[in-house]
Structures are given as structure tokens and as C-alpha cells.
Amino acid sequence: MALKSLTRRIALGLAACALAAPAFAQAQEDQDKMTPMAIPAQPDAIDLGTGPLPGAKATESWHRQYGSRFARNVTMATLTPFLPDPAKASGAAIIVAPGGGFRTLSMDNEGYDVAKALAAKGIAAFVIKYRLNQTPADMAGFEKSMAEMFAGAARAPLPAANRAAMNLAPQLEDSKAAFRLIRSRAAQWHVDPDRIGMIGFSAGAMLTMATALSTDAKPAFVGNIYGPLGSMTVPADAPPMFAGIAADDPLFGNRDFKLIDDWRAAKRPVEFHLFEQGGHGFGMYPKKTTSTGWFDAFVRWLDMHGWLAPKGK
Questions:
Q1: Global pTM value
Q2: Which of 37, 147, 172, 174 is deepest in the core (most CB within 10 A)?
Q3: Considering only CA atoms, which of 137, 3, 120, 2 is closest in space to residue 58?
Q4: Secondary structure (3-state) at 104
Q5: How far apart, in whole angstroms, are the C-alpha atoms of residue 187 and residue 121?
Q6: BD-FAE-like domain location, by residue (predicted)?
Q7: Which pLDDT score, from 0 to 100, does residue 156 have?
């Protein structure tokens, strides 16, 4: 009887798995699909004062995908603070720039989730919702435009980083405004104005590198997470840089990484992590690949440079 009972339980279990598999596949498909949503309340977001995007016709909208929230057609730039427990605060700060091809922003995975994790380490973090290139207002048109953009990006030669930076006028204006705002409120937010860095993801990494080249923002350090790593002119006072990318990144993983050599040639501090797997856009998503460890490595790098402790300690 015991054997019959066990056999029956196994049969029922297999049947349940057979029924669950399509359901799981459907759930995964639903999660991967872009689903429109209402613009969430953002009570702590601060207007950066750079004005509306010139010539904008489409208005800001949000959607869900991969279990994360995305913003698009952003026409007014904002900065959202995530401040650490005063008992843990180091005085250092980081501006977090989400990616999305300058057409959308991965607000959770490459924005809020990163900022919350940094604040837990004693770093004041600020998510910048910078202005974006306009896309079709309807979801179908937007999806098509994104597919075309990423397909083209994977095939086309990438412009040198310093030339590409010239095409980011509105976004760079937003980034510089973010640095000015934080420095103007340094006392209020208990931030050292000389210890403000920036980290960006994909397009956000491109904006971060453009900001590092600017003469008036002066980040104390920068993080380039799965952004392009092509050659660029590195100034003598370039900030320390942390870079991470997966070798199987379909956009930038099969290109050269001469930016690392350029940073070293300029005798500026640089740390580079090439993960075997991880794809593009891994951000704070938990994955089985070693790319998930980028955040811990970044925190250790910050600690090595003394940014996790109050100045002078």
C-alpha cells in the first residue's frame, strides 16, 4: 500500500509540474512584456530647474517590465534623495544615473534600488531622472522604436565617447544641475561637497563619463556599469573610475575596452571587472552569474578609497 501511495503522489506531482510549466512560462512572458502604469507618486523628487525639454510633444509616462518600473518621455528633470542613517553617514554622496538608451529610464533596477543599497552603506544617494529623447506616445510604437535602436546599436560602430558626449546637451545640463543642487544643500544633507561621485548604467554610464569630462561638475569618482568602454581623451585630473561589464553583453561586450588603458596611461586610478556572464542591464537584479557581485565589489572599492568613512578617519 505504501508503494502504491508513493507512486500516486509521484504521479500527481508530475501532473502538477506539467500544469505549472505553462503557467510559469506565461507568468515570465507577462513579466517581460511592457505594461503601461500610472505615473507613481514621487514626493521626494526635486525639480532640477533645467526647464522643459525643448520641442517636446509627448508627455511623461511609465510602464512595468521585468518586475521593474520604467519612465519615458521625461521632459522635466528631477533628483530624488536617499539619505543614510546619520549614525552611518560618511559624508560622501553619489548621483545614480539609470540607463535606457536615452529613451527610457530603469527607475528601480538602475535607480532607486541602487540608491537604497548605497544609503544602507552610509552613502547619500541621489537618483537623477534626466530628460529623454522623445519616443512614440503609444506603447506599440515605443516598443518598435526600442527594438530598432538596440538592434542598430549592436551592429553599428560606436562613436568615440568624447564625441558622443557632445550629443547629450539636455542630459549633461541635468547632470551638472544635480551636482550644483547637492553642493548648494550640502549642509542640509550632511554631504561633503568635495566627495560627490556619480555612477551610471548603460546610457547612464555614457552620461556619467560625459560629466566626468566636463570642467564644472568635477565628480570625485565615477562608476561605469555596462556602458561603452571605447577610447577617449582622459584629462590629467580625471576622477578615479570603477568599471564593470559582462563579456556576453550584446551591446558593448564584444567591443574594445581601450578606455581602461586610456585611464591607466593618464595615470589615473581605475578598477575594471569583466564578468564572464551577465548580459546587459543586470543592475540590481539577483542572478546566478558573477555579475551580481558588481555592487559588493563597488562598495569595497569605495571603502578602499576611504569614501565609506567620514573624512579624515
A1: 0.88
A2: 174
A3: 137
A4: strand
A5: 20
A6: 169-217
A7: 58
Alpha carbon of residue 235 to chain centroid: 24
Mention every residue, 6+ apart, whose C-beta is less than 8 A from residue 21.
none
CA atoms within 13 A on the CB side of 160: 9
The set of residues, in sequence order, having a beta carbon less than 8 Å from that of 135 and lying 6+ positions away, is 58, 72, 73, 103, 104, 141, 142, 145, 146
**Dihedral (CA of 196, 199, 204, 207) sign:** positive
Q: How crowded is the C-beta side of 147, counted as CA atoms within 13 Å?
A: 7
User: Which pairing describes strands 61-65 and 68-72: parallel, antiparallel, or unpaired?
Assistant: antiparallel
Decide if pLDDT at 17 tops 80.
no
Give the cell for residue 302: 569605495
Structural domain 36-304, CATH architecture:
3-Layer(aba) Sandwich (3.40)
Give 116's contacts (C-beta < 8 A, 6+ positions apart): 82, 125
Phi and psi torsions of 90, nearest 5°: -95, -15
- The phi-psi region of residue 258 (left if phi > 0; otherwise alpha if psi is between -120 and 50; otherwise beta) is alpha
Which amino acid is residue 53, in one-letter code?
A: L
* Strands across the sheet containing 104-106: 35-37, 61-65, 68-72, 104-106
Break the chain into its structural domains and give their ranges. Answer: 36-304
Helix, strand or coil, per DSSP, at residue 273: strand
Q: Calculate Rg over the CA atoms of the chain.
A: 21
Phi/psi at 78 (nearest 5 deg)?
-135, 165
d(CA 306, CA 150): 38
- What pLDDT shows up at residue 195? 97
pLDDT at 5 over 50: no
Pairing, β 46-47 against β 78-82: antiparallel
First to last CA, the chain: 71
